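Q: Here's a chain of 206 amino acids. Please give me its 3D structure as C-alpha cells.
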Amino acid sequence: MQSFKCAICKVGKVVPDEKGKKAECDNCGTVFQCYRDDRFTLKKLGDKQYSDTYKELDNRQDGFSGLTIYEWESIANGGLTDKEQAVKDKENAVKEREQSVQNIIVTTTPSIDGNTIKEYKGIVTGQVAAGINVFKDAFSGIRNVVGGRSEVLQETMKKMREEALKDLKEEAIDRGANAVVGATLDFDEYAEGMLLLTITGTAVIM
C-alpha cells in the first residue's frame, strides 16, 4: 500500500504498516487507521503541537470511513476533499448562473442598438403572483405617501417586476440566449384575490 503526505504536519510521510491496517507519520507520529483499500481515518494524534489541526481535520474527514489517500494528499497540499470540492463546484455553478442572469439584456424594443440578432430562441415568459391584499395594505398606509405616491406600493411593484424579470432571464438562459427583445409587461387578476404580473419577450442570441 502506498504512502502519502501527512495532512497534520504537512511535512512527514505517512507509511502504512506491513499488514496495511494502520499508518504512521514519520515526522509528527500521527496514526491513521485503514478502513478499507486506500481509505484512512485519523486514529491518534502524535505531536501535541498539531492538536488544533488534528481537531479541524477530524471534523472534515468522512465519518468512520475516513478519506482516500488522494484526499489526504489533497488536504496536505492545501486542497479539498471530494465532498468539499463537490460543494465548491456547486457554489461556483450557482454564482456563474447568477452572473449569467445579471448579464442578460432585456429590452422592450425589437432590437438592440449596435447588435445583430444571430438567432431567435423562441418566446420566454416570467411570472409572479401576489395577493391583492398586499396592494390594499399598501394603499391603506396613506401616511407613506410622498409626492402623491405610496412608497410601500412602489416597493411592492418593484419587487414583483424584479422577480418576474429574473424568471424571464432564467428561461432565456435555459434556451441558450443572451438577450430578450420585445418585452411586454401585463398585470391581470387571474383568481379571486390574486394578481399576476407577466413579462413576455423573445429570447435571442446577439
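Q: Can you summarize the key feature?
A: Residues 4-84 form one domain.
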